[in-house]
Amino acid sequence: MTEDPIVLAQRLNHWFGTGSARKQALYDIDLRLERGSFTVLVGPSGSGKTTLLTLIGCLRLVQEGSLHLMGHELHGAEEAQLVAMRRRLGFIFQAHNLHESLTATQNVMMGAQVHRGVAETAAGGAARHILGLVGLADRTDYLPANLSGGQKQRVAIARALVGNPDLLLADEPTAALDKDSASEAIDLMRRIGAARGMTTLLVTHDPRILDRADRILTLEDGRIVADRRTG
Fold first, then answer.
1. For 32-89, how does the pLDDT look when each residue is reduced to its tens digit (9 = 90+)?
2. Of 34, 59, 121, 209, which residue is the least packed, with the fewest Cβ within 10 Å?
3. Residue 155 contacts residue 109 (beta carbons within 8 Å)
């Protein structure tokens, strides 16, 4: 028996605005993401990449079509169900969004407490463990102002992964990083994700990381126009 996909979208459409200003952003998206896969979504600015990512991430309401996440239909789902689903996800964005007044450990602890409801004592241990995995064992008590750009993004990766998410959603996570830092960030996501059986969907304009993907999807004008498996 084939395992159900972690994401299954069928004829998914989305609009922004109302009346004469209403504009369609996604057109009949059909998408299946298998568990444990590392998929990269590319396309020009304004093609709908972030819109699709935020729909899958339960950050926008599904307007038309079907979107199953981990076996649950999101179209028409109640807010309580969407909140519960978000707790099973990890999010990484271009802006690391770290709290400047909190140490690296405290920033990562917030991820454990928000996404899995972990008690503070356990969250502290989990935060220090994941910071060690991303190479920041000697920076656990540093404030963001004392970290490099690459180190800040590694803290953001640790925060997203500390709750052992089923699905990691990343939006331009390497855009502000130099080549070496970008490569390190992607390798961390791949290595830790593979060890934990996590699925990753990553939006990017960065051609430097395409060779790390299992699959590359191209979105143009709200439509998937290419779907290429690598390796």
1. 999 999 999 999 999 999 999 999 999 999 999 999 999 999 999 999 999 999 989 9
2. 121
3. no
Give the per-residue pLDDT at 1: 43
16 is a domain residue: no
d(CA 189, CA 25): 29
Would 123 be classed as within a structural domain? yes
Range of 135's domain?
A: 38-59+79-229
Domain-located, residue 160? yes
Number of domains in the chain: 1
> CB-side exposure of 222: number of CA atoms within 13 Å?
12
| Inside any domain, residue 10 | no
Instruction: Show Cβ contacts of residue 133 under 8 Å, excluding neighbours closer than 6 positions.
Output: 158, 188, 192
Structure tokens at 213: 């993907």
CATH number, domain of 137, equals 3.40.50.300
The distance from CA 137 to its chain's CA centroid, rounded to whole angstroms, is 24
Mean pLDDT, all residues of the chain: 90
CA distance 178 to 166: 28
